[in-house]
Amino acid sequence: METMIREEVQALKRIQENLESCILGKTDEIKLLLTAMLAGGHVLLEDVPGTGKTVLIKALAKSIRGQFRRIQCNPDLLPTDITGVSIYHPRDEVFMFRPGPIMTNILLADEINRATTKTQSALLEAMEERHITVDGETHELPKPFLLLATQNPIDFEGTYILPEAQLDRFMMKFSLGYPDEQTEMRMIVSQSIVHPLDALEPVAESNQILAIQQLVKQIHLEEAVAAYLVAIIRMTREHPAIFLGASPRATLALVQAAKAYALLNERDFVIPDDIKFLAPYVLGHRILLQAEARMEGATVQSVLQSVFQQVKVPVRWEK
Length: 319
Prior knowledge:
The chain is an alpha/beta fold. Helices cover 46% and strands 15% of the residues. The strands form 4 sheets. The protein has a 5-stranded parallel sheet.
């Protein structure tokens, strides 16, 4: 298995190098994106416009030679604009399914919180079940399938709050943020002649990603580390500053993400540091704070740090 891991890690490193050539200075965020893809999860990128979210997603699709589709969300978007629609053909006297943009490997739902809640809900079945139902007929999605949604901050004009049920189906939520000064200077130089995305070449195949996803499931999760993970989850449900803690779906998402992250780091086992690194991104959007805690200045991230301090790390990994 160690030989398999080395081979697959080399493929992942090539993908990571591709992405880093397009999005400079965002190594951690790129690793989070790859982790979610390998774990079979979906990602919500929240950021102001112009930070490179769309370029990152396009670069990923191109790197794995995957099908890519984009939905530009707006208040006029209908559920059938995403899933597709059955059209009646008078000559053949049958209904023919015309697939929507969701029938792809990588789907970008740009500015998802500009769509109405009804349209947002059209994505729930696809995110969880990997298929859609149109006029009572079920259609399987291509494999692999990865939804990457972007959203502007809630206080931007014309945005809707994503319902908790949909937020819970995103494995991770993170932001790219602004580049630092040196990175922005490098960006100017690198894009002065040609955009890096135009010169990008595929370095893996979508079928190869499916094989790596199966390998992720074989990564070992020791019982002590699993108990540490569960203790963190349960503490989010008992912490006095938290109104709504992490769900059982969050537990499973954190397990899969930790296994994928271990593989990215060339290990066939999970360590507590994997969980501590990933937990803010996997749990942060699933937690609601008490009103009193928010008024006192608490944030989800600060409360999660409090949770980490209260949960004891397994003895073997204590520093």
